Amino acid sequence: xxxxxxxxxxLRPYANRQESVEFDARTVGEALAGLTTEYEELRKHLxxxxxxxxxxxxxxxxxxxxxxxxxxxxxxxxxxxISIVPSIAGxxxxxxxxx
Amino acid sequence: MATKLAPLTTSQAExxxxxxxxxxxxxHLIMPEVxxxxxxxxxxxxxxxxGTGGLGAxxxxxxxxxxxxxxxxxxxxxxxxxxxxxxxxFSTSDVGRAKLDAAKERLGNLNPEIQIDTYETxxxxxxxxxxxxxxxxxxxxxxxxxxxxLVNDACVLLGKPNVYGxxxxxxxxxxxxxxxxxxxxxxxxxxPPPPGLVPSCAEGGVLGVLPGIVGAIQATETIKLILGKxxxxxxxxxxxxxxxxxxxELKLRKNPDCPVCGEHRTITQxxxxxEFCGIRGEEAPAPATLVPEITPREVKARLDRGDDLFILDVxxxxxxxxxxxxxxxxxxxxxxxxxxxLDSSREIIAHCRSGKRSAEAVEFLxxxxxxxxxxxxxxxxxxxxxxxxSLPKY
Lengths: 99, 394
Known about the structure:
heterodimer, A: alpha+beta, Ubiquitin-like (UB roll), globular, B: alpha/beta, Rossmann fold, Oxidized Rhodanese, domain 1, 2 domains, five-stranded parallel beta sheet, 15 strands, 18% strand, elongated
């Protein structure tokens, strides 16, 4: 099934600055595995060392949080969109202390 | 999920609008969704803005203009030149002033009919409940994770809506947390990212109009909460990409296992948020002091003597374009695969903007066997201070 994965701004530097990538996958987990295989650097931003999706990163299939579906086993339909939505904190100053 | 709004209840005696106020708010008054009833609700409303920066600017301006009767402002910062690109409350002449003084003057001039209370402090676990308690709605326009979790938890504990917005580069998020029955920030993100994984400000920055858009969305939601009109942005996360000019809406659910608003809550009072976010304090010293350092003055003196020094710039290409020391550019992230471009027999001075990234570069290269390598202390900022004041700072 063709699925589009939307990459959020903070993670684009680790995915060749792309806004979205298309994959053939049957489940959300397969699509994310495809993504992190193609962009190895993304892996540590999406997964903990023991392979769980990080708690400050949410993954949506269309508009639904996969935590409330079948998580990474959630089945994909042709034309679905996966969104990766990490927490961002910026509001007034430059993000984090300047470096 | 659309959450129909019910008006906030206020206990004050029914106020009235003066003749001047009726003229000022006439475009609200002739609109049935606001009308006299709504405008009086706005006049009675008490809204606290946490942060008067990028998001706080449109928030303060629009909420003051709309006639929110009491605005509280929390900040402890001073206006600097880099703020002016997006913090439109402030003028060039405000640089160096306390943000709260400048904001209070600006908002007071915009609307002298409202009360503006300022809290010149960092919001902490010790003062948050006391400050928030007096207000009906809290609007989160801060710039860091510890304060965001603090604002969230305090709002949940006090039962106050928390109008949330955050921005990064050209992407923004907005929603309303803490509304009765709705999710909170911890339902969305149980934990903050560990500090090392947060994109650094080397990759950061923000499009100046972005906080204008996201802050205006927060102001809209705040006014709707006060009026009790429309569908609140509760249980929905609005994600905005300015580059694609696209809004997406994602469902937010209340997490039954949420530690602060769930059924079996474990957080019943405010905690240490710096510790929770793994931060030792904003000015925590980086391990920069562990690598060999050299000051800009020493480097200048050695270059003037004709010493052969190789200047390695580990910033990003777009930073090099702002200003540079004519060094060899290898961004920190590319260093591992471009290390062959360096000659370990030469003396190398690594630098970045402030000295943190280059300290990492020096540490990396020392592990790779480089011995004659120093970190330029304070980076290009210090070079501007100590050696060449014509070099722009950014």
